[in-house]
Amino acid sequence: MKTIAKILGGFVVVIIALFLFFAERDRPVEELIPLYANKDSKFMPIMGMKVHYRDEGVATDTLPLILLHGMSSSLNTWDNVALYLKRYKRVISLDLPGFALTGPSPENNYDFPYYSKFIDSFATRLKIKRFILVGNSMGGAITWNYALHNPSRLAKMVLIDAAGYPKKGESGSLGFKLASTPVINNLLLYVTPKSLVRKSLESIYADQSKVTDEQVERFHDIAIREGNREVALQIFKGSFHGDYKRIKEIKTPTFVMWGAKDQLISVDNSAEFMKDIKGSQGVIFNVGHVPMEEVPFDVALSIYKFVR
């Protein structure tokens, strides 16, 4: 018993030491806007939030693209893809509720029905009747769930390393593992070291040289934006409950993209989506979890060919 008590005591001491060394305050969004908003950034008051978005490209396009990022990410994940596509299409990227500069929803609700309602409201405010959704990872799961929610408004969709099916033994990122570990994950409300951010980013790229100090700084800053850590923890504890068996009901024309070296969501899932969504097309790139960042031109070209 004394040995166990010593071990537990030592563990507590280590946890307290880590907390004291790494703990840092939330950053007010007012501090972050000058750093991460640009001349194309707009802020829409909607559903109790000020949603950060960019509306670029061909203003007369009647079937615009709406781009949805993944977990703990931001609209910046689409920067290079938007650079190519906005020559030909209207391209709208946004920070989803709970993330980046948009921050928490006052409803404190982060499930698929909520995000579907948000997309409806967002598109309506922009006076968009029909659109094409493009989603990566968590954004991909939000996309295919929206296809079930309001198929008449969704002309087409593109799924990029999309979440949805049960895990297939993927190794995952260090950050995701910690965030999914009971008790320890509560520390992430206060402790978000840049070293952890870097390790997590390195696990989502096949080419780790693409992880820059600037990226690490941005991901760290948007992670500790006021309220965002609480949202991330809530999601990791299980606020999303999509029914992957309903994917077979989807009739929306679909294009599936995947990174062959994705460690977070196995490339095997691409075959699952294409089997379940009849008539869907797909392509595999020799990259990791975020093809739009590793091979943006190839992703943009594939999207353009599919939607033109």
Descriptive report:
- This protein is of the alpha/beta class.
- The protein has one domain: Rossmann fold.
- 43% of the residues lie in helices and 16% in strands.
- The protein has helices at residues 2-22, 29-36, 79-85, 112-125, 138-149, 174-179, 184-187, 194-204, 213-223, 228-239, 268-276, 291-294, 296-307; strands at residues 41-46, 49-57, 65-68, 90-94, 131-136, 154-160, 254-259, 281-285.
- The protein has an 8-stranded mixed sheet with strand order 1-2-4-3-5-6-7-8, sandwiched between helices.
- Helix 11 (268-276) links the parallel strand 7 and strand 8 (281-285).
- Helix 3 packs across helix 13, helix 4 (112-125) packs across helix 5 (138-149) and helix 8 (194-204) crosses helix 9.
- The protein is globular, with a radius of gyration of 20 Å.
- The protein starts with a helix and ends with a helix.
- GO terms for molecular function: hydrolase activity.
- The chain crosses the membrane at residues 7-23.
- Keywords: Hydrolase, Membrane, Transmembrane, Transmembrane helix.
- Residues 64-294 form the AB hydrolase-1 domain.
- This is Alpha/beta hydrolase.
From the structure above, extract its key features.
single chain; 308 residues; alpha/beta; Rossmann fold; eight-stranded mixed β-sheet; 13 helices
The end-to-end span amounts to 69 Å
Number of domains: 1
Determine the oligomeric state from the structure: single chain
| Rg, Cα atoms, Å | 20 Å
Largest beta sheet: strand ordering: 1-2-4-3-5-6-7-8
The computed structural class is alpha/beta
CATH class: Alpha Beta
CATH topology category name:
Rossmann fold
InterPro entries: AB_hydrolase_1, AB_hydrolase_fold
Organism: Aquirufa originis
Protein name: Alpha/beta hydrolase
GO molecular function, one term: hydrolase activity
